[in-house]
Amino acid sequence: MAQVQVETVRQAPGGASLPDRIEQALQDDLFIPEDFAAFVLQVARNNDSAGKLLRELREPRPNGEECIPWLGDTLMLERLVRLCARGKIALNLRGKEYLQAEPGESEEAAWNRMKGRLGTGKVA
Length: 124
What we know:
Layout: H1 18-30, H2 33-45, H3 50-58, H4 73-85, E1 91-93, E2 97-99, H5 107-114
Antiparallel strand pairs: 1-2
Helix pairs in contact: 4-5
């Protein structure tokens, strides 16, 4: 049986703004971009699909490994595309094209060209 470690963070009362503050705390305090990038690179080395990557990120990691906080489909896809824009990985979009930085292209130019190309992130 898997063990779960729960971390609690005290939040001041805030009504409607509380969900936004929780999301922001996840992004700023718990999500470690370097861990995400290392995991993505590991999956890329195995030539696994982006769909498999997203499915694996949604589930607890095996053998008590540290989990990468799930930020939701949109933010996780944006971070994946950012890795493409940085030239760290290339994504094959159903054999039609690759999401990858072009030689000499800035990260921001690559990001602007690529963002939104992966769709909604809904994975069966």
